[in-house]
């Protein structure tokens, strides 16, 4: 190692030809926001309820579940170098950043990247210098892990935020989340685990596998796990951490970065926490070291659970749509008492200490679904309008006694089939979980109720349609009128009915994610800035942004390390809660 702040084979000196060319590319500042000038295409937020995206995401999730073991590249990583990194700042301490769930729409992702890249932030009176180490905690890209998506939604914005490596040469480590796994980790490994051009914007990439261990000041350690979307920890990974454990001792303290907050998910699925508990119980605990901080993304908010000797922090607010906080339990037991693991650690209580946004604001965001759902997802409304128009034509044909007529045969489908499609669509939308879940029946009941409500809306729409003279026009004029007049109106009404269903279902813990994914809320973003003092004190500053920037101006004449784009209205970060101090 040439420098305590630089990984063993980290950012190479700029006298090498490849790096000279890379430096020239990044040092040339863009003169417009055209994609050829920026080197990437700024993307709009993902419309999560778009019909084609719903289908493709469902297929990817199904394929990942069915064939994840066959696509698992972790076993192959055994052939890669098993490095243990070291990160120490010039004063013997270290500034460390954590951000997760970041590669979505440009405005939100770049707002957070811009703050991370600034030489210093002043937040509620605290001066917070730019971190020497950045950890990305999972789901670096949405909706799928293609190389193009990484470039446009993640690497490009971070390149624009910090184009050239600053003097302190910050280093980046990344944990893969479930979206990073959709292609079997191929694009993730190309970006974060490589032997050449080890740069991610102005950050040097520091890991040699999809998991990592970093020695920090004062016998603190940062361990990043890859559990392949919650499946298991592979043998090469456990062997790697066995080697790491030989350097831990009773005075060691551990920050454990994991892909998902399974301590919360275990409330409904008791086995969710088993992999983390196994790791702590078999790798860390025998050394006498203590895991003082567990940190994760995956849920797109900030939440902290405080326990006797450990903090459990979720901070998945790096750019993806907001996830609510008002459904979080006030107290959890970790590991849960009803886990199936016979050798689980002793269960301890953890209390919810802080959230961002707070519960009241989270509830208000939920009520915004009526306005945001149709505006953010026009394709979803079009799909509902099409289904309802076909259902109305089928009902109208039967009600008017023309079930065998030309109109019914050519441009509608049998009534029973359309009713079946409507009911099955509503039930599958409720996503009944496996039998191991605790709310299996609620999903079915709410899904069926939602389906019946959509059928009732269709019946009311059919009655209204038969009350106007349009249905008596010669064929095919009624069909054309239905498509032009009835379709858009019923599409909007059925979308609002879905919004009402989501609001009610979320109160019972069902379709909570869809309630907020359908709104695509850009605001309420956060990241962690942490300081390890030379004496071993760890201070966590949860930096929050109530409103992200939406208008940007070019900064063509700035210094090489200055951000390419700056917000027209200043971003005003604040602390989501007072700093959390962990004493040695």
From TrEMBL:
Instruction: Reply yes or no: does the keyword Phosphoprotein apply.
Output: no
Q: Which domain of life is it from?
A: Bacteria
Q: Which UniProt keywords apply?
A: Membrane, Transmembrane, Transmembrane helix
Keyword Transmembrane included in the entry's annotation: yes
List every stretch annotated Disordered.
1-40
Where do the TM regions start and end? 48-71, 380-399, 411-431, 443-466, 486-510
This one is known as Metallophosphoesterase
Upper lineage ranks? Bacteria, Bacillati, Actinomycetota, Actinomycetes, Micromonosporales
């Amino acid at each position: 190692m040439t420098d305590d702040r630089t990984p063993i084979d980290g950012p190479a000196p700029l006298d090498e030809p490849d790096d000279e060319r890379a430096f020239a590319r990044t040092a040339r500042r863009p003169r417009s926001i055209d994609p050829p000038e920026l080197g990437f295409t700024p993307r709009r937020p993902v419309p999560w309820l778009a019909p084609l995206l719903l289908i493709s995401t469902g297929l990817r999730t199904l394929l990942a579940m069915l064939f994840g073991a066959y696509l698992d590249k972790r076993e192959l990583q055994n052939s890669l170098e098993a490095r243990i990194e070291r990160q120490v700042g010039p004063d013997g301490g270290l500034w460390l950043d954590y951000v997760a769930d970041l590669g979505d729409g440009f405005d939100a992702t770049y707002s957070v990247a811009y703050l991370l890249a600034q030489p210093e932030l002043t937040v509620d009176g605290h001066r917070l210098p730019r971190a020497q180490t950045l950890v990305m905690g999972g789901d670096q890209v949405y909706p799928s892990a293609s190389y193009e998506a990484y470039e446009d939604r993640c690497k490009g914005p971070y390149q624009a935020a910090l184009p050239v490596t600053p003097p302190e040469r910050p280093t980046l480590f990344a944990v893969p989340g479930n979206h990073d796994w959709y292609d079997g980790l191929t694009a993730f490994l190309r970006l974060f685990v490589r032997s050449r051009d080890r740069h991610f914007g102005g950050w040097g990439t520091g890991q040699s596998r999809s998991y990592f261990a970093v020695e920090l000041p004062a016998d603190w350690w940062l361990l990043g796990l890859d559990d392949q979307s919650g499946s298991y920890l592979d043998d090469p990974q456990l062997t790697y951490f066995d080697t790491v454990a030989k350097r831990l001792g009773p005075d060691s303290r551990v920050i454990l970065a994991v892909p998902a907050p399974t301590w919360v998910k275990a409330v409904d699925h008791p086995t969710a926490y088993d992999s983390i508990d196994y790791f702590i119980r078999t790798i860390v605990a025998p050394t006498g070291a203590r895991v003082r901080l567990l940190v994760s993304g995956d849920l797109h908010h900030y939440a902290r659970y405080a326990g006797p000797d450990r903090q459990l922090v979720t901070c998945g607010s790096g750019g993806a749509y907001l996830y609510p906080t008002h459904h979080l339990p006030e107290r959890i037991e970790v590991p849960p008492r009803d886990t199936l693991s016979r050798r689980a650690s002793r269960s301890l209580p953890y209390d919810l200490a802080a959230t961002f946004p707070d519960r009241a604001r989270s509830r208000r965001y939920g009520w915004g679904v009526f306005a945001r759902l149709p505006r953010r997802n026009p394709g979803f409304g079009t799909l509902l309008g099409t289904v309802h128009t076909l259902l109305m034509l089928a009902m109208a044909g039967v009600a008017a006694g023309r079930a065998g007529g030309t109109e019914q045969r050519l441009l509608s489908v049998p009534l029973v089939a359309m009713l079946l499609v409507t009911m099955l669509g509503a039930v599958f939308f409720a996503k009944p979980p496996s039998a191991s879940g605790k709310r299996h029946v609620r999903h079915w009941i709410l899904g069926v109720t939602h389906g019946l409500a959509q059928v009732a809306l269709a019946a009311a729409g059919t009655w209204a349609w038969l009350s106007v003279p349009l249905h008596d026009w010669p064929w095919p004029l009624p069909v054309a009128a239905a498509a032009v007049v009835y379709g858009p109106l019923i599409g909007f009404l059925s979308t609002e009915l879905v919004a009402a269903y989501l609001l009610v279902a979320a109160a019972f813990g069902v379709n909570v994610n869809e309630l907020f994914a359908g709104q695509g809320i850009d605001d309420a973003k956060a990241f962690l800035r942490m300081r390890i003092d030379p004496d071993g004190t760890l201070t966590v500053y949860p930096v929050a942004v109530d409103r992200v920037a939406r208008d940007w101006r070019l900064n063509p004449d700035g210094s090489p390390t200055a951000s390419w784009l700056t917000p027209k209205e200043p971003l005003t970060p604040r602390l989501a809660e007072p700093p959390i101090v962990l004493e040695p």
